[in-house]
């Protein structure tokens, strides 16, 4: 068991190595010189440009640069952002917190929507409510996320004025930073205004992410529930006269594993940046940071950001795998992959 | 016999898909007006305006014609990117699962690394490197979507590999390649097809997202994603510019996913490959 | 119990009241792009947005008004002798935010830092090629000697913000960036990512501002910026597309300043079909700029009949210049068989599409290609694009700036653009640079404009006005064409 986990861990490291190599070389293949972009429309002499290139280490061979990058990264130094003049780690980490907050709230909403829907659908298998909910799930899955975001903004922000159109918190709200999570911090500091503002701002983007997620959750859980429902031990429980709620709990517990796995996979993907949603809602998360960094050819920032993204994905996958193994003893014995 | 089991919805979905394909192929002849014809004097007309049933956009171009013409790129892109992704992904999965050992380990780690990137980011990077244009867009989409099939195929190959009919074929001296292609591949196809149909929808949405970010094909070609992007700034004054293309995309993707679901029920009702793309 | 609740109520009321008061003198500006470095002596110096912030914290010797001509700021007056010796008489009542006095020594320090060989300033190459030496003649008298007559010196000096010398030497560039000190109407308080907070400088020589706190935020998405303005989260929103000015209703209104950007269609003279100046001229004639202005910019732009706008020095007010003549254009263009591809950045897409529309109507096979920002810059700077729509900001307000970067044959390999070169133009350019006599320069520029209109490497398009969204509670502020914010008289209700 421990051996399996260690093995997985080793795999994760190799994966990260590959990721770092891919992004490193890929970004340098893109046309456009970071120094030129950095200097913009200014009239800078060629000597000054060369000096900058040297200062940023861009004049060395690409392999040397890669080795330097790896060496520093292992020690925890992801370098300095070319454009922002701040350490990549701090920029990336703060952006990551924003994305993580969005992802977590999105998942919570998705679960809150998807689990009851799945339960109702499964218990009314093949009847009208089931068909209706399944169709709803299909719709939720098919709507392009970014369009959903735009429509929500159009309806709820612009026309009804209920929600703000973007950003993480109101511009005139001051919030003390403790954990970096707006909602947590406002609760911890008792700042009701910040809490209200933060919740209003996160509502639409989280809802946008949650819809597709809820659709997946609903679909998978419904399938598992339908399978479990027919199993013997449920009849046994019912014949013993247990109330419906207790029976539901048993069913859910048994039907959970595939859903948990799907959620884990999706969460890992979300941590990778709900990029388009962040773009639509101007959410200051990792996805947006990386897109801006790609546009500015800010190599260190792109590398650091993608690396963190991959790390988050890998860690979440790892944890999901471990949970899966724990939940299902049948898998502990050598079955590989999905 | 099987046909009678289809729910009514399936026929509607199939119709929608057929319309999509038809419009995508013949769009240029179907559009009532030239989708690229600008008339700066008739900008931002709302739907139901005379001569423009769905209104005009910021440059006075007819929205209906653009919606029709906008089907071409998503169709072409999805119909090429998905088969190409399958080709590469299934090949890698087959090789990885069948050969096993070190080859398997390396290929799987590479695939995992590839999967750790969000699709959009990979697509953006490829478009940035290769430049705009429909061929590059297809390459970018293939590059970001091939990895999905690998795990799927590999898992099945691993279990099939040990089955009797394979081991006996090997003992009879049948070459590995023949075994892989003639015996294992057919067993793997159903799940690949199921995922592929879902992927078509994903590819269409990804293409729209890229166009939305300004990284799609040239602006000469109207695509639904680009229309969404252009319409976004006018969201409060000309709502139809941002809503109509989105509705169209949703309907098409919905139809495709619905058919995909039915396909899955037919081929393998107990498959857990539901909506995981 | 009752007394307690009364007291609590009173405290709450005072709290709300005072926070309301404090809030009222807090002005928030929402900008479309984030600031780069605030330190004037380092790159990246950033664009308009950064400059807007810098000019709150710092002053320069001179400042541009709406006419783009330099006006006195830290320098009260100046004179030029023999064309190369500039004597500046500086104000004697100015102190830096940290108490250091501003005097000729401080000014000399700043200019020396820029022209020093190891300088990291954005203006190093321009100033060091102009200025021979900087001397202190009296406590408030500065003398600048140039190698040759330098007519553009004053305008360039408008961009050189003054930092506190002792403070700068103590803190070093990084320390200075973290806590910059200047002589401006607002003092630096903090910077959180792209949000910069400033506080009123009570001792400002130009009179203390009415606003006590000034905040600059970055809201890149225009719809979010407008929404934030309407919600009262910000009081000024910059870069509102002219198309969306109708959105500014209710508690907000538009405020317009004339712009300093020239939008143009660049044609690569080394590639077909643009090798032939006849074709280039025809392309220019095919474009209905008045329609563009009225349709795309709701009238808030100026059609350009030359590669200059009225406030620019060198602008020829009395010529006819480039005109809209679709018949003449069609006569030439309908026989052109080479298709053209117009590269454009995402941000300028609509203008490019409108341009392409006109060209298509004139019989030219034209299509628009959106190119990602960095790749676009790469392509035009190396002179690879066949045609492109882009813009150039001429904050300097002098035709020299455009010639230097786009048309002078000595402009270098990273500024190829249209690959246009003309020895006659070079001579005129050098001559105009070589004299401080503005009349002489104007005459020379008249010839330059004639050449540029005739050779048409550019088809000039429009010069849009800059539209700002402004809260109805704000008064005492007018937008400037330079993009700077003169805030000392601004008040919030």
TrEMBL record, chain A:
PROSITE patterns: ABC_TM1 (PS50928). Residues 96-320 form the ABC transmembrane type-1 domain. The chain crosses the membrane at residues 12-30, 95-120, 132-156, 198-221, 259-281, 301-327. SUPFAM superfamilies: MetI-like (SSF161098). It is a multi-pass membrane protein. Coiled coil: none annotated. Its main location: membrane. It holds the Pfam family BPD_transp_1. Belongs to the binding-protein-dependent transport system permease family. This is ABC transporter permease. The lineage of its organism: Bacteria, Pseudomonadati, Pseudomonadota, Alphaproteobacteria, Hyphomicrobiales.
TrEMBL record, chain B:
Keywords: Cell membrane, Membrane, Peptide transport, Protein transport, Transmembrane, Transmembrane helix, Transport. It holds the Pfam family BPD_transp_1. It comes from Chelativorans composti. It is a multi-pass membrane protein. The chain crosses the membrane at residues 12-31, 75-101, 113-131, 137-153, 192-217, 237-260. The keyword DNA damage does not apply. InterPro entries: BP-dependent_transpt_permease, MetI-like, MetI-like_sf, OppC_N. CDD domains: TM_PBP2. This is ABC transporter permease. Belongs to the binding-protein-dependent transport system permease family. The keyword Membrane applies. Residues 71-260 form the ABC transmembrane type-1 domain. It is found in: Cell membrane. Its main location: membrane.
């Amino acid at each position: 068991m421990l051996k399996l986990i260690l093995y997985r861990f080793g795999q994760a490291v190799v994966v990260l190595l590959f990721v770092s190599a891919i992004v490193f070389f890929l970004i340098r293949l893109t046309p456009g010189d970071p120094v030129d972009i950095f200097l913009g429309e200014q009239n800078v002499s060629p000597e000054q440009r060369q000096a900058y290139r040297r200062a940023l280490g861009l004049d060395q061979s690409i392999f040397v640069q890669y080795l330097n990058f790896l060496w520093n990264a292992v020690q925890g130094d992801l370098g300095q952002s070319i454009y922002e003049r701040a350490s990549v780690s701090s920029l990336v980490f703060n952006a990551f917190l924003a994305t993580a907050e969005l992802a977590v709230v999105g998942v919570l909403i998705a679960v809150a929507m998807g689990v009851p829907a799945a339960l109702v659908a499964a218990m009314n298998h093949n009847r009208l409510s089931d068909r209706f909910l399944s169709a709803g799930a299909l719709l939720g899955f098919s709507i392009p996320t970014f369009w959903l975001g735009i429509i929500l903004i159009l309806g709820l922000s612009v026309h009804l004025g209920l929600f703000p159109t973007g950003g993480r918190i109101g511009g005139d709200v001051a919030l003390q930073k403790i954990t970096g999570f707006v909602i947590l911090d406002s609760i911890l500091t008792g700042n009701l205004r910040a809490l209200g503002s933060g919740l209003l701002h996160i509502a639409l983007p989280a809802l946008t992410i949650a819809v597709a997620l809820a659709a997946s959750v609903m679909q998978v859980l419904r399938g598992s529930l339908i399978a479990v429902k027919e199993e013997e031990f449920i009849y046994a429980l019912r014949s013993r006269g247990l109330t419906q709620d207790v029976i539901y709990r048993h069913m859910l517990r048994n039907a959970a594993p595939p859903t948990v796995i799907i959620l884990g996979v999706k969460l890992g993907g979300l941590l990778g940046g709900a990029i388009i949603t962040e773009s639509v809602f101007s959410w200051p998360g990792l996805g947006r940071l990386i897109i801006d960094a790609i546009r500015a050819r800010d190599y260190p920032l792109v590398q650091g950001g993608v690396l963190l993204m991959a790390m988050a994905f890998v860690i979440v996958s790892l944890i999901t795998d471990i949970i899966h193994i724990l939940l299902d003893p049948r898998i502990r014995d050598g079955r590989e992959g999905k | 016999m099987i046909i009678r089991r289809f729910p009514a919805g399936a026929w509607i979905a199939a119709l929608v898909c057929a319309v999509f394909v038809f419009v995508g192929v013949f769009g240029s002849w179907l559009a009532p007006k030239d989708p690229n014809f600008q008339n700066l004097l008739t900008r931002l007309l709302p739907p139901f305006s005379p001569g423009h049933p769905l209104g005009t956009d910021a440059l006075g171009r007819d929205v209906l014609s653009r919606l029709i013409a906008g089907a071409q790129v998503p169709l072409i892109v999805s119909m090429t990117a998905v088969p190409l992704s399958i080709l590469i992904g299934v090949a890698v999965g087959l090789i990885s699962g069948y050969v096993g050992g070190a080859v398997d380990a390396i290929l799987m780690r590479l695939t995992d690394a590839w999967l750790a990137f969000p699709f959009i980011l990979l697509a953006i990077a490829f478009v940035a490197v290769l430049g705009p244009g429909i061929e590059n867009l297809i390459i970018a989409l293939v590059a970001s979507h091939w990895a999905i099939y690998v795990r799927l195929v590999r898992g099945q190959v691993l279990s099939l590999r040990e089955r009797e009919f394979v081991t006996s074929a090997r003992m009879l001296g049948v070459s590995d390649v023949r075994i892989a292609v003639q015996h294992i591949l057919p067993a793997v196809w159903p799940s690949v097809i199921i995922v592929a149909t879902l992927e078509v929808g994903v590819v269409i949405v990804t293409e729209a997202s890229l166009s939305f970010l300004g990284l799609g094909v040239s602006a000469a070609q109207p695509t639904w994603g680009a229309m969404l992007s252009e319409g976004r700034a006018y969201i409060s004054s000309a709502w139809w510019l941002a809503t109509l293309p989105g509705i169209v995309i949703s309907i098409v993707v919905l139809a495709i996913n619905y058919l995909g679901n039915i396909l899955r029920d037919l081929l393998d009702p107990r498959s857990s490959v539901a909506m995981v793309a | 119990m009752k007394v307690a609740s009364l007291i609590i109520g009173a405290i709450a009321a005072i709290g709300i009241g005072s926070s309301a008061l404090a809030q009222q003198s807090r002005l928030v500006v929402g900008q479309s792009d984030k600031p780069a470095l605030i330190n004037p002596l380092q790159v990246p110096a950033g664009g308009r947005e950064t400059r807007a912030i810098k000019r709150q914290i710092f002053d320069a010797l001179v400042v541009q008004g709406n006419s783009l001509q330099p006006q006195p700021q830290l320098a009260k007056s100046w004179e030029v002798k023999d064309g190369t010796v500039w004597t500046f008489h500086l104000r004697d009542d100015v102190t830096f935010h940290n108490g250091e006095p501003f005097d000729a020594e401080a000014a000399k320090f700043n200019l020396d830092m820029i022209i020093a060989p190891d300088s990291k300033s954005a203006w190093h190459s321009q100033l060091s090629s102009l200025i021979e030496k900087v001397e202190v003649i009296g406590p408030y008298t500065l003398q600048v000697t140039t190698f040759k007559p330098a007519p553009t010196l004053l305008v360039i000096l408008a961009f050189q913000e003054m930092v506190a010398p002792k403070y700068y030497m103590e803190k070093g560039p990084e320390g200075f960036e973290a806590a910059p000190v200047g002589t401006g109407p607002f003092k630096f308080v903090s910077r959180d990512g792209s949000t910069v907070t400033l506080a009123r400088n009570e001792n400002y020589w130009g009179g203390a501002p009415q606003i006590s706190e000034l905040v600059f935020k970055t809201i890149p998405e225009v719809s979010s910026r407008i929404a934030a303005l309407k919600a009262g989260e910000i009081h000024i929103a910059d870069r509102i597309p002219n198309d969306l000015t109708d959105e500014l209703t209710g508690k907000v209104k538009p405020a317009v300043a004339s712009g300093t950007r020239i939008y143009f269609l660049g044609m690569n003279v080394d590639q077909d079909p643009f090798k032939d100046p006849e074709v280039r001229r025809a392309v220019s004639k095919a474009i209905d700029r008045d329609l563009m202005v009225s349709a795309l910019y709701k009238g808030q732009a100026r059609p350009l009949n030359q590669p200059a706008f009225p406030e620019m020095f060198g602008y020829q007010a009395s010529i006819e210049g480039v005109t809209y003549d679709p018949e003449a254009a069609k006569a030439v263009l309908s026989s052109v068989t080479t298709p053209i591809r117009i590269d454009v950045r995402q941000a300028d897409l609509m203008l490019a599409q409108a341009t392409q529309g006109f060209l298509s109507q004139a019989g030219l096979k034209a299509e628009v290609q959106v190119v990602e920002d960095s790749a676009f810059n790469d392509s035009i700077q190396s002179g690879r694009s066949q045609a492109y729509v882009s813009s150039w900001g001429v904050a300097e307000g002098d035709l020299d700036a455009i010639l230097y970067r786009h048309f002078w044959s000595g402009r270098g390999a990273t500024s190829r653009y249209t690959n246009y070169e003309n020895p006659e133009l070079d001579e005129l350019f050098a001559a105009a640079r070589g004299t401080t006599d503005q009349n002489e320069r104007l005459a020379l520029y008249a010839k330059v404009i004639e050449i540029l209109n005739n050779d048409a490497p550019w088809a000039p398009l429009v010069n849009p006005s800059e539209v700002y969204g402004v809260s109805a509670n704000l008064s005492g502020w007018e937008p400037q064409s330079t993009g700077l914010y003169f805030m000392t008289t601004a008040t919030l209700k």
